[in-house]
Write a structure and sequence with these properties.
The structure holds 2 protein chains of 2 kinds. By secondary structure, chain A is mainly beta. Chain A has helices at residues 2-19, 125-128; strands at 21-26, 30-31, 35-44, 53-54, 60-63, 69-70, 73-77, 82-88, 92-108, 115-120, 134-151, 164-168, 175-176, 180-187, 190-191, 196-201, 213-216, 222-226, 231-241, 251-263. The radius of gyration of chain A is 19 Å and the shape is globular. The relative contact order of chain A is 0.17. The chains are: A mainly beta, B mainly beta. The A-B interface holds A 30-33, 35, 152-153, 174, 176, 263-264 and B 70, 74-78, 81, 84-85, 89-90.
Chain lengths: 264, 174
């Protein structure tokens, strides 16, 4: 009974993760001096409207300009969104990211033939699957949701080199309406060629059309965006490959989303 | 008398006697609003490729009531968005001869001679004077005037803002 409820909850959670947008929304991305900023984190269809679910912050990682890790303050998971404060005291660019690395499995129960699903980490997923399960499919997931904040002069962000990652030419907090910004998309530290990047302006609830930009990365993993208007933007990319690090998994699903502020 | 003396010196060293200079007049408009705060203003010179050649002046809240030597208002310097991004953020304020207190409505005349802290020697070429104003609970405006350096002749190109800036006059002194 307990297990089946858990399974239902997991299926619901998985459905949510796939159908909705997960986002971070920083209160400020450009500061003249050290301060405290607050960040909203939600999962919803409308950008950046907290009308569906809070984003879980288990995988929250805040990296200071000097490479050190910061702890958030005043963390709360509300009904529709999560919130946390970040004390940004140092000059330079901060990376605020929520990582979602894990694995999920689906199989048929031997006795009943019923479809079952489970989610876990690379280490635990094996234990979720019964030994006599049939048609087992294990998939690894590697997701990153992030945003950037700069105090004073921007500093170089240290590349991650794992999964999908966005590298801005210049600073990711220096974007201006009407200007062209160039980015490189990397997959495990190598240029991610021929991937479709979607760029959507926030406040989607106030317009009839989504008006998202769909841009392909070139042979060097590069792409450019000329910002049509000022505001908060959500950039997302999804792909899959077979470079799994979870032994049972045959496929790795990768996702990346960034919130970027464009100034007028 | 002074002119003659300089001419003589010029003849002596075979170089222009006067350092070229420029004057900038910035008008802060009088606004009929219920809550008024004097605007933050930055004036700077940009090269043809939009990079910052020099910051001429920055007006912000320089009061130090909480013993903050930078001034109370540094938190809002980033609202002079274009100046901030072009290089304002690399300036450690306050800077003598460049930063100062916010100014009341009216025309403010500034004068710079080449070789000073605010106006170092500029390589010959095309430039732009850019003036940006940002006001608390108000708007933001940027006005620019292109010019050639060194100026061939004395000239006074003028531009005007619509909301947050009045008349901007650049005085080129060869």
């Amino acid at each position: 009974m307990k297990t089946s409820l858990l399974a239902i909850a997991l299926i619901a959670a998985l459905g949510t993760a796939q159908a909705h947008n997960a986002w971070l929304l920083p209160s400020t991305t450009v500061l003249s001096k050290g301060d405290v900023i607050t960040v909203d984190a939600g999962v919803s269809n409308d950008l950046f409207v907290a009308n569906h679910n809070a984003l879980r912050l288990d995988g929250l990682q805040i990296t200071a300009p000097d490479g050190g890790t910061l702890k958030p303050d005043n963390v709360a998971q509300l009904k529709q969104r999560s919130v946390f404060d970040v004390s940004v005291a140092q000059a330079g660019t901060y990376r605020i990211a929520v990582l979602n690395n894990g694995a999920f499995a689906s199989w048929k129960d031997k006795a009943t033939g019923q479809a079952k699903r489970a989610r876990g980490t690379a280490e635990t997923i094996g234990r979720e699957i019964p030994v006599d399960a049939a048609d087992v499919v294990v998939t690894q997931s590697a997701g990153r949701i992030e945003t950037f904040v700069t105090v004073g002069k921007p500093s170089q962000l240290k590349p991650i080199g794992q999964g999908l990652e966005l590298i801005a030419t210049g600073s990711p907090t220096d974007l201006v309406k009407g200007e062209k910004s160039t980015f490189t998309l990397n997959l495990d530290g190598q240029p991610a060629k021929d991937l479709e990047v979607t760029v959507t302006a926030g406040n989607t609830q106030y317009r009839d059309k989504l008006e998202e930009l769909k841009i392909k990365t070139d042979s060097k993993g590069q792409f450019s965006v000329t910002w049509p208007s000022a505001g908060m933007y959500w950039l997302d990319v999804n792909t899959k490959d077979n470079k799994t690090t979870v032994p049972q998994a045959k496929e790795r699903r990768l996702s990346y989303a960034a919130t970027l502020e464009v100034m007028p | 008398m002074k002119v003659r003396y300089s001419l003589a010196l010029g003849a002596l060293f075979g170089a222009p006697a006067f350092a070229a200079g420029l004057g900038v007049s910035i008008e802060v408009p009088r606004l009929n609003v219920s809550e008024y705060h004097r605007p933050y203003v930055a004036a700077w010179i940009e090269r043809a490729d939009n990079t910052l050649a020099t910051t001429l002046t920055v007006w912000y809240d320089v009061r130090t009531k909480t013993n903050n030597p930078e001034g109370e208002g540094t938190k809002w310097l980033k609202d002079l968005r274009q100046w901030w991004r072009r290089g304002g953020r690399e300036l450690a304020v306050p800077v003598d001869g460049i930063t100062g207190a916010t100014k009341p409505a009216g025309k403010h005349q500034l004068s710079f001679s080449e070789g000073s802290a605010a106006l170092p020697k500029l390589a010959p070429g095309a430039y732009k004077l850019v003036v940006e104003a940002a006001r608390e609970v108000g708007g933001r405006e940027v006005v620019s005037i292109p010019f050639q350096w060194p100026p061939a002749a004395a000239a006074q190109p003028v531009a005007a803002g619509k909301e947050e800036l009045g008349e901007i006059r650049l005085e080129l002194k060869p």
